[in-house]
Each structure stands twice: as structure tokens, then as C-alpha cells.
Amino acid sequence: MTYSPAYGWTEEQLALKHSAMEFTRREVTPHLDEWERNGEIPREFQKKLAAAGLLGVGVPEEVGGDGGTLMDVCAMQEGFMEAGWSGGLMASAYTHGIAIPHIIQAGSKELVDTYVRPVLSGDMIGSLGVTEPGTGSDVAGITTRAVRDGDEWVINGAKMFITSSVRGDFVTTAVRTGGEGAHGISLIVVPKGTPGFSVSRKLDKMGWLASDTGELTYDDVRVPLANLVGEENHGFYYIADKFVTERIWLALMGYGHAIRCLNLTAQYCQDRTTFGKPLVANQVVRAKLVEMRRQIEIARSYTLEIARRYDAGENCIAEACLAKQTAVDTAVWVANEAVQLHGGMGYMRETEVERHYRDVRLLPIGGGSTEVLTDLAARLMGYAPGAKA
User: Is 185 helix (H, G, I), strand (E, B) or coil?
Assistant: First the structure.
């Protein structure tokens, strides 16, 4: 029996979810294995998403989006993941979810017209450059520096693990324009082809194979002062403000992978015969399937509750950290059990659960590691020394 939760959605959101699933069957399923082998998705895929009305969901119409709330985004993404998207496909197709929100929030009309609108029409691909070789989750510790020189910024430094940067057209780049710590960081848009700006290396990964990931070099890169997003030295706060939606997005990926793994495994256990009976005839197998479902139900319910509260205007920074951890821990456990129940076939590249097993392993690391986010939640909830709840 296929698990396809409909509760929690309005009729419109359920229709959006089903539209995402149908799009997947038509435009993704026949090609996904090839994209995984190629290490990236074709640029024209963005145009197909835009034409289907699925690229700008959750983005205001006044900047070229399709409108809607975070809950609408959740419904759409649940449909994609339940229908079998890989983690790399989701990351690459929706990198604009982290590349353009800061420009929409604080950027000039010129920046919106030059970068945001073309991204939402599928004509450009953007990425976000925050992580550096020596900083990881320590956003406040970045060292890539931008200094003023006349009417230009001159940027020097490096970025690491940047999604969609190989095929991307620009990078919304976090740079240090002031002193040490969070108060000295700004965001500057750097277009592809700018002299001194290069993808120094395309990175090979354990999972997320359909996602192009690069290491970037900035060597005396000059861009106009007008490419500054918002106010100088306010970049950290723009970045932090969008962490809630990013972590909910990753939580959705987590329980989405888990739903797909459960459905694939339940069907396999019905079809696979051992010792003269189907696998599902064994009590221990049924117990595993039920536990997979139980953990998914909890992760999904909590994630969507936090998304609803965010849409209602609540401050959900700590709760988003908890939602991400709950969902990604579920994803890792469920994918592991899926491989185990598939037996030897679960270890084969020809079996889909093997891909999910590799893809989910990144989720407790990306978007803030579980350890970092747990400590952040402790401080926000007043559990750290000197903290106030």
C-alpha cells in the first residue's frame, strides 16, 4: 500500500502536490539516471519548471514569482520527493531558494531586474557563496574580503561546496567588508565571466550526484558598487533571516526521502519471496515498516507545524533547527532500514534506495550541521550558560 499523505493540505495545495508528482513522471523519471551519471541537470530543465508554474512558487509575484506561502512550497516539494526526486536534483533545480531571497528582501530594483526575474523565468541560474574551505558552518568567520576602489568592489578569497556554481550565471557572495565577526559581512552579486572569478574545481561527492558543486576562486575580482545587496555590513543578518526557510526545506527533503524509501521498501517486501513466503509475512519485517512510518509521521507533522507558524509570522529559528534534526535523522534511519530490507539488491546502484541512502547522508551536515544547530537551539531556548530564554 502506497503511503501518500494528503492531510495537512488545502485543496489547492493538494492539487499543487499532485501537479508536482505528474511533472515528475513526465519530465524527471525518464531522465534522472542520466542526470545522475552526468553530474548535473540540463539548463533547459529550469525553463520546463517555469513553464509548468513550479519554479517561482513561494516567491512574490511583483518580482516575477508565482506567489504563495511556505506551506505551498512544502506541498510542492513533498510531491516532488514522494515521486522520486534525488537530493541532487532538488538542490540544483531550486538553488534559487537560497540565491535570490536576499536580493528580493534588500536588493535594488536593478539587481532584482537583472538577476531575480531571469532566474524565475528559467533563463538564469544563481547560487549562494557562503561556505569557505576553513569556515564550514561558521558564517561569522568568513575571510573572503571585498574592499572599495573607486566605484568598484575588489574581491579576494575562496568558497567551497557551492551548489549550482559550475553551471550558474552568478553567485550571491558573502564577503567581509568590515571588521571581524558577524557585523563586518556583506553580500555582493558576482556574475560569471567576471575577470578573476572562476570555478577552480568541480567537486566529486558521495551523493547528490545530479547537483554540480564547485570550489570558487576570487582573485582581484572587480564588480560595481551597485552589486552590493542591501546595506554594507548587514549581510550576516540577511543570511540568518533566511536560515529558517532553508532548514525547513532541508527537513522536507529529509522526510520526503523517507516517504519514498518506505513506499519502495513496502512494495519490495510484498513482491520478494524468501523461504517460500513474501518478506512481509515475517513479523520483524512488518515491525520495521511500521517503525519507518511512525518516524516519518512525526517528522512530517512537526516540520509542517513549524512551516505554518513561520507563515503566521512567528519567530521559529530554534524550532526550525529541531525540525531539521528530527526529519534528517528520520531520513538517515529510514534509508538505512530500506537498504537492509532490500538485502543485497539494496547495495546495488540499480536499486533506487541505494541512491537515497547516499543522498540523505548530507542532510545532517548541510545547512548547518546537527551539532551546530543543536547548540544554537540550546542558546536560543535558554539552556546555555548565561543564555536567556
Answer: strand
- Confirm whether 246 is a catalytic residue: yes
With residue 145 as reference, give the H or E element that holds it.
Answer: strand 145-149
The CA-based dihedral angle spanning residues 285, 288, 290, 293, taken in that order and rounded to the nearest 10 degrees: -130
- Provide Rg for the chain, Cα atoms: 21
Using the 3D structure, point to which of 74, 97, 120 is the last residue of a domain.
120
Looking at the predicted structure, is the pLDDT value of residue 229 above 70?
yes
**Catalytic site residue from 36, 232, 246, 319:** 246
Rounded (10°) CA dihedral 172, 175, 177, 182: 110
**Which residues are bridge partners to 155 per DSSP?**
146, 221
The answer to whether residue 85 sits within a structural domain is yes
pTM of the model: 0.95
Tens digits of residue pLDDT in 303-347 = 999 999 999 999 999 999 999 999 999 999 999 999 999 999 999
298, 179: one domain: no
Domain coverage including residue 88: 11-120
- Length of the chain counted residue by residue: 389
Q: Assess whether 116 and 132 both reside in one domain.
A: no
Find out whether 254 and 126 touch, Cβ atoms under 8 Å: no
